[in-house]
């Protein structure tokens, strides 16, 4: 059997970012599903190796073109290049002659916006990033938000703030809090990334603004790290990064076989939504219920009891129970249990999750109690729920049509 020709390919991505890692995973999936034989050249931080990249003696490159330094460095290379990055409203902003695979920024924002509408909200804002060449993707998402607001005859409310660093952290948070206080409530806020969404939720915590009753937040990236570092589980738009990686690898494969794909542009839509507590807006009319749910959302998994919630709100336990029954039709204990169960379900979806650790981490006193709650509320054991989630994740997803040579 004739062996496939081996090629040396450079992947110019930042392995510290979830977006880049998922694209790399998509490239790997393409290699594993075909007879392509590539030796991959991948730096942890490729930006340290950009000078002289035009003299690199490889066979092809797949690169993150959201970074202007990459675009400039690869202008002089004679190797086949496939660009990956964000979409642009103006076609002139795309690189000339280079095949380009883009995440569809407009559809990312539109999906987040439609989710907030379905949550019952009628006012919306966007938390963006300061205008800069390295933030072009954020500005495109900001423009998409403004276009949707204009389409629906709503006032665009955009806040860019400052780029956060250790010296500017306090200034950044103070600016975010001032902006949050200035907004009408309730309101849904679309953050241009999960990192930005997490910062905003921290500002809400400091300011005592209830999430999601007063401010519902949704990010973009579905970054597990952002979820782990947030007290309130973060809703997020799932980018089609895995498909972007597969598509980019397929295009480069064609080019290595002689295909001319100059100017090819493929926009990949979002893969879906991961809806969690931060955007699960349910209007509360009584301020005590709103305060209590805000406290429960943050500390349910730490084993809090009804009395502690009442102490936080500053009312008697019986009074709080009465307000909960009238407003939500359930007890304070039921509300705490509901959030603990949601947290356990989210943890069971992670690879290698241990049920005993989940029981402890979500505030259940024993594994047996966790089993009993799952059986009563979901009709299955935690293990059965986990296996069901694994089967759903493994189900094949149809790929978009890719132009052939």
UniProtKB/TrEMBL annotation:
Keywords: DNA-binding, Transcription, Transcription regulation. This is DNA-binding transcriptional regulator. One of its GO terms (molecular function) is transcription cis-regulatory region binding. The keyword Cell membrane does not apply. It comes from Rugamonas brunnea. Coiled coil: none annotated. Pfam families: HTH_18, PBP1_XylR, Peripla_BP_3. Residues 290-388 form the HTH araC/xylS-type domain. The keyword Transcription applies.
């Amino acid at each position: 059997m004739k062996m496939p020709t081996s090629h040396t390919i450079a992947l110019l991505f930042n392995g510290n970012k979830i977006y880049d890692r998922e694209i790399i995973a998509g490239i790997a999936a393409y290699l594993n599903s075909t007879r392509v034989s590539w030796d991959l050249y991948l730096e942890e931080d490729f930006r340290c190796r950009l000078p002289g990249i035009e003299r690199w003696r490889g066979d092809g490159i797949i690169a993150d073109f959201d970074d202007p330094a990459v675009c400039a460095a690869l202008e002089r290379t004679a190797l086949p290049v496939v660009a990956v990055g964000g979409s642009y409203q103006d076609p002139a902003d795309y690189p000339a002659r280079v095949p380009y695979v883009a995440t569809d920024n407009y559809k990312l924002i539109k999906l987040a916006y439609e989710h907030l509408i379905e949550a019952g909200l009628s006012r919306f804002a966007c938390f963006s990033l300061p205008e800069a060449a390295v933030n072009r993707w954020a500005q495109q998402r900001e423009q998409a938000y403004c276009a949707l607001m204009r389409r629906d005859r709503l006032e665009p409310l955009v806040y860019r703030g400052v780029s956060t660093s250790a010296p500017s952290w306090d200034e950044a948070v103070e600016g975010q809090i001032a902006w949050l206080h200035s907004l009408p409530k309730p309101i849904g806020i679309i953050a241009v990334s999960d990192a930005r969404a997490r910062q905003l939720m921290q500002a809400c915590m400091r300011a005592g603004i209830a999430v999601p009753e007063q401010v519902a937040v949704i990010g973009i990236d579905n970054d597990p790290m952002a979820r782990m570092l947030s007290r309130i589980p973060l809703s997020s738009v799932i980018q089609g990064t895995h498909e972007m990686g597969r598509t980019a690898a397929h295009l480069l494969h064609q080019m290595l076989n002689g295909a001319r794909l100059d100017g090819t542009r493929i926009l990949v839509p979002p893969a879906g939504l991961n809806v969690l507590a931060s955007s699960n807006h349910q209007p509360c009319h009584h301020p005590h219920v709103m305060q209590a749910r805000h406290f429960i959302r943050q500390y349910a998994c730490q084993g809090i009891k009804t009395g502690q919630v009442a102490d936080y709100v500053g009312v008697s336990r019986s009074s709080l129970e009465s307000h909960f029954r009238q407003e939500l039709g359930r007890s304070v204990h039921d509300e705490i249990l509901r959030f603990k169960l949601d947290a356990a379900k989210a943890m069971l979806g992670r690879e290698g999750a241990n049920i005993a650790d989940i029981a402890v981490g979500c505030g259940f006193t024993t594994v047996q109690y966790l089993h009993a709650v799952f059986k009563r509320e979901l009709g299955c054991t935690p293990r059965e729920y986990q296996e069901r989630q694994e089967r759903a994740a493994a189900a094949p997803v149809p790929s978009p049509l890719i132009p052939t040579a």
